[in-house]
Amino acid sequence: MKDKQAVEEALGRRLLLGEMMARNSRKFPDKEALVFGEIRLTYKQLNARINQQAHALLDLGIKKGSKVAILSFNCNQFMEAYFALAKVGGVAVPLNFRLHPEELKYMVENSDAEAFIVGEAFLQTVEGIQKGLPKVKNYISITDQPVEGMLHFETWISKYSDEEPLILVDEDDPAFIMYTAGTTGRPKGAVITNKNEIVMWALAAPVVVSEPGASDLWDARAFGAPPIFHLASFGFCQFMFFIGATVVLPTEVFNPAYIMETIEKERISVIILIPAMANFLLLLPDLDKYDTSSLRVWGSSGAILPTETRKKILQYFPNVKIYDLFGMTEMSAIVSTLLPSESEGRETSVGKALPFIEIRVVDDEDNDVPVGVVGEAIYRGPTVLKEYYKNPQATAEAMRGGWFHSGDLVRRDEEGYLYIVDRKKDMIISGGENIYPAEIEEVLYKHPKILECAVIGVQDKDWGESVKAVVVRKQGEDLTAEEVVEFCKGHLASYKKPKSVEFVDALPRNAMGKVLKTVLREEYGKAVKY
Fold first, then answer.
1. Which of these three, 157, 187, 217, is where a domain ends?
2. Is the pLDDT of residue 182 over 60?
3. How many helices (H) and strands (E) does the chain have?
4. More exposed terminus of the chain, fewer Cβ within 10 Å: N or C?
5. Is pLDDT above 60 for 348?
6. pTM for the full model?
7. Containing domain of residue 413, as a range?
């Protein structure tokens, strides 16, 4: 008994994901915690299921440091797996379901995963790569019926106790390995610790709820549209659990009409969307028919929110406050936020750094640049990743000088507000001039006939590189390249305007909606013909 009490006391003093959920089950036992379709779980019920899975994992030999891969659409079992692994010191390896089987095989093998949790939609995919995964000892299926050769998730956990497993996990123990998109070379596994995540939400919570009118977030009903294999979406859910709110998981990957129906049905008060999702949502012809009076907070992350999109959000949802959230997986999701009360006149900013996160803006030699000058953002603080898994060279390169080098080109004003200029690798150099695609894209989004756009540099025999705009027209609209260039002439310096325009049906994106400019450069980056 004394040993059990000692472990309980030790866990209660630590910054741990699993302990956060256990604490909520004691503080809010009957409060609705998680909704997924017809499944509704209180904090007590959710924690009980997490504990059952934790004991089941221990019985499989999953212990501190063991890795478990997860490939599934959103579901309550997926969410529970994150916390069950955290309680036993295991490491979740969530996988992007849009990846090619060979890419998935690489991540599972590279992560040293010993078990693999598989959603029904991906059984065939996993069966096709099993022979290349000798380290995986157990497969668990999230399916209605058992699958031969796999443990059936619900049957598997049902025979185990719902008592706390009481494994003494350390704050600096890894909680996840989140693989980067891998748009250049092999993807890297960002190792995120328990402390990274809990500190992140402990820093973010007072900033967010201090905003006028945001104090009722504690009773929020939150809807995260992106899939939870990505830290931006799972991090949003963590934050909501952290403050004791209710999380509604989407049952569909992305469907604008379904999102609006869910806002109305579940009385959603907080939502997070990436800008691309917001654009498609705003195209619904019958937005006015939905009751969205409950919606109060709109989080935007994953990319810069175009000013025109912001205006349309506020036009159609006049009661919402928009929080611009900026960060990256390696920083445990968020670096800075632009609060609604600070956004007027600073719509293109991503706000100020969260408390305890230091930001410097430096040149190529890591010297600080003056206010207003563009440089690379580098970060230091308690939310920086532990390492890139089994990749000391990438870790050393990213963390040179003790600061994490983000690859983001930014500038900072006299008040400390941060403005994202572009990714370092996306900058265009034409005739010796630095051109930042994000600036041109911001102008293009103002055109009434343009739905989406991306700007890249293409080879130019005279200037080294020139500007190309890749444009998606709004449905039913006619738009010529000449019109696009002429529109830009009225808003940009002459050397920044596109020299060529390509029209496409859709932009290539990764699973979080970020445009894959590497793909566009491969397709359209050859020399311009005159």
1. 187
2. no
3. 16, 26
4. N
5. yes
6. 0.86
7. 194-424
